[in-house]
Amino acid sequence: MGHIIELEQNHVLQTYARPPFVLDHGKGCWVYDTAGNGYLDCAAGIAVNALGHAHPSLIAALTEQASKLWHVSNLYHTAPQAQLAEALCASSFAERVFFCNSGAEANEAAFKFSRKWAHDNFGAQKHAIVAFSNAFHGRTFGALAATPREKYQAPFRPLLPGVRFAEFNDLAAAAEVIADDVCAVIVEPVQGEGGIHPATQEFLTGLRDLCNAHNALLIFDEVQCGLGRTGTLWAHQQYGVTPDLLTVAKPLAGGLPMAAVLMTQAVAQVMHPGDHGSTFAASPLVASVANAVLKLVNQAEFLAEVTQKGTYLKERLQEINSPCIAAVRGVGLMLAADLTIPANAVIQAGYRQSLLLINAGPNTLRLVPPLIISREEIDLLIERLATIFAEL
Fold first, then answer.
1. Superfamily assignment of 2-55+300-391 in CATH?
2. Tens digit of pLDDT for each residue in 133-157?
3. HEC per residue, 221-244
4. 55, 112, 133, 325: which is deepest, by most CB within 10 A?
């Protein structure tokens, strides 16, 4: 274990502060380090491992495809990609899908598609993008320009020009910045990195109306909140508001890198061969696993259980009744607890209680466990969290 940590510290760019153990394998909602210690995974690889670790259906899909074809690039037809695109369209508003490899890539693509749509239909002057406070859309230059965090942006300016901001969940503020020069408005139906803040019904409905009034496209970033995390397949379905584009990534291939932009035909028709691309996107190997993930998650019974378990976890969190917890919020299995103490103190104590925990801001504990977590495991989580808060 010490040797591996030393190798990482000597040779990997130090952009992460990792705990002092090395994870080796996992099963279900549990991961195990090289010393054999088990941890209840309440982070799910940052809301990625929706079906936990070593899920037999995903292993079967991966193994079958691994013996056939891994990668040929997007220059050629492969069945898994086409089948996945069909399934995503059938389960959403979309008529077309563009595949890529990460949430940031998906948001970059959505910006490009939106600007091309506006350019072709209205002219080059219609290019502005509107985003909101506390948003997180990625760390590449375009996505970072729409992520209003001074700490993230300052060392890397100049960023993509033409992005303006309004206060999240403030429709009047949005109306002030959404004008006829706006090509797209991007919003998370439930903000993830910003602290697990759901949009209000009025806000999302109002954004749709503003986009319609100003001939702008509405982009929903469901990289973290999409694909079952909130108890519906897509988070925006709970609002009855339909976007023009939707970005999805984290859980799509169960832990393998995959993302997608879902869009209407009106947007898709402005893009032509050579306008955009990706070498690795939707390889047969990754797309085969994503097909298995989508098939398992997109079932009414599975999604109903996510809702039920999310409600149970939220209630149990509130029952802890600790002065360390100021507020609990979220939807489905995407929950947060605002703390009166630094979240990192709870995360560090979590390792000693055999929990993997993450934050969403300096004083917000984020709980995004695998969607397959059981009530017994939720009870164990609450028991251990109560011990941590009592100690702290």
1. Aspartate Aminotransferase, domain 1 (3.90.1150.10)
2. 999 999 999 999 999 999 999 999 9
3. ECCCCCCCCCCCCCHHHHCCCCCC
4. 55
Contact 365, 336 (CB under 8 A): yes
Other Cβ atoms less than 10 A from the Cβ of 198: the count is 21
Instruction: Tell me if 2-55+300-391 shares its fold with 58-297.
Output: no
Report CA torsion sign: 94, 114, 103, 212: negative
Quickly tell me which residue has 């693509």 as its tokens: 109
Question: 248-263: per-residue pLDDT in tens?
Answer: 999 999 999 999 999 9
What's the rounded mean pLDDT across residues 272-289?
A: 97
What the block records as the tokens of 214 is 């100003």
Domain boundaries, the chain: 2-55+300-391, 58-297
